[in-house]
């Protein structure tokens, strides 16, 4: 069918685009299965419709806290030791210790933007003693008691204070590890606390079958199968069949490679999300250096810190 909704239907669709059943597509089923997996992986990693932004909630356990703190005890819970050996002159051994301050994330998660604060300051929390609560209690007891502009300015001021005095939680993530490292003070975390992950998760085509009908995925998989078909026939180059027909696997392979180059260029120009954050980053640098012309060291640590905070101020908190 023209709108495949399963893996087998997608494979049949691509083969029909290459001439089946009129022509025999000389590609093994195992090879086609590998190509489908490669095409879906490329779709997930590059296409903006291959992932979805989601928010995952995780409940901290006592085991997580013990591993994160990594206290030096008899059991050495959470301590991982790595050894390096030098054999220059004499043999020397160097031991390094590292905390296992991570939580395991699902394999479908390919990127983590940030985690939301779970220990907010008194300026932004909703507790009875917070500034926000007192502001509503004393000044905004009804909508006619104050102007909306004054309220908005006070709220922005409180957010600036919270941003300056309360640092963002430092995280490290690599999708090949499936681990989210939390570089935080684990002593301030309690069992039962929740953290919210702002992350990107793959769309499983088995759950969302419309992935198989994506126009890019169909064209890309067709080109991959065509390339494999040509690769299989290259070794028969110059062999004549009855009737004078000669197989030309090299031509099929070259045509498929050209199709793949065009499709991948189209992916970069059409289906990928552009690096818009870099535009904001360079704009923040221009603002900083235009206002601080006396700074002559573009790579200094203070300049880097100032630019990052200016970028967050103007773009992340806009």
Describe this structure in words.
The protein is of the alpha+beta class and 318 residues long. 43% of the residues lie in helices and 17% in strands. It folds into 3 domains: 111 residues, no CATH class; 106 residues, no CATH class; 43 residues, no CATH class. A hairpin with a 4-residue loop joins strand 6 and strand 7. Helix 2 packs across helix 6, helix 6 packs antiparallel against helix 7 and helix 8 crosses helix 9.
How far apart the termini lie comes to 48 Å
Helices and strands, in N-to-C order? HHEHEEEEHHEEEHHHH
**Record field, number of beta strands:** 8
C-alpha Rg (nearest Å): 29 Å
Briefly characterize the structure:
With 318 residues, the protein is of the alpha+beta class.
Keywords:
318 residues; alpha+beta; three-stranded antiparallel β-sheet; 9 helices; 43% helix; 17% strand; extended
What is the element layout, followed by pairings?
Blueprint: H1 7-17, H2 29-46, E1 51-59, H3 62-69, E2 79-86, E3 92-99, E4 102-104, E5 109-115, H4 131-138, H5 148-165, E6 170-174, E7 179-183, E8 194-202, H6 215-233, H7 249-271, H8 276-291, H9 301-316
Antiparallel strand pairs: 1-8, 2-3, 4-7, 5-8, 6-7
Helix pairs in contact: 1-6, 2-6, 6-7, 8-9
């Amino acid at each position: 069918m023209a709108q495949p909704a399963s893996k087998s239907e997608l494979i049949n669709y691509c083969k029909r685009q290459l001439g089946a059943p009129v022509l025999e597509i000389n590609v093994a089923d195992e090879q086609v299965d590998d190509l489908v997996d490669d095409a879906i992986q490329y779709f997930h990693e590059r296409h903006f419709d291959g992932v979805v932004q989601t928010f995952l909630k995780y409940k901290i356990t006592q085991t997580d806290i013990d591993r994160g703190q990594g206290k030096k005890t008899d059991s050495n819970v959470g301590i991982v030791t790595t050894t390096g050996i030098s054999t220059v002159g004499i043999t020397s051994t160097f031991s390094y210790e590292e905390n296992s301050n991570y939580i395991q994330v699902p394999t479908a998660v390919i990127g983590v933007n940030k985690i939301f604060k779970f220990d907010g300051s008194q300026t932004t929390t909703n507790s009875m003693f917070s500034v926000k609560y007192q502001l509503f209690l004393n000044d905004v007891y009804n909508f006619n008691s104050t102007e909306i502009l004054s309220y908005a300015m006070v709220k922005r001021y409180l957010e600036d204070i919270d941003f300056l005095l309360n640092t963002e939680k430092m995280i490290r993530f690599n999708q090949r590890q499936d681990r989210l490292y939390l570089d935080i003070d684990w002593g301030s975390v309690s069992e039962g606390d929740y953290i919210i992950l702002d992350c990107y998760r793959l769309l499983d085509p088995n759950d969302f079958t419309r992935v198989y009908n994506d126009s890019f995925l169909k064209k890309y998989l067709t080109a991959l199968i065509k390339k494999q078909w040509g690769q299989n026939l290259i070794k028969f180059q110059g062999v004549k069949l009855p009737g004078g027909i000669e197989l030309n696997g090299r031509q099929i392979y070259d045509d498929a490679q050209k199709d793949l180059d065009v499709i991948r260029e189209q992916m970069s120009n059409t289906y990928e999300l552009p690096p818009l954050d870099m535009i904001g980053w360079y704009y923040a640098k221009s603002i900083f250096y235009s206002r601080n012309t006396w700074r002559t060291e573009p790579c200094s640590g203070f300049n880097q810190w100032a630019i990052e905070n200016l970028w967050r101020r103007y773009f992340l908190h806009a």
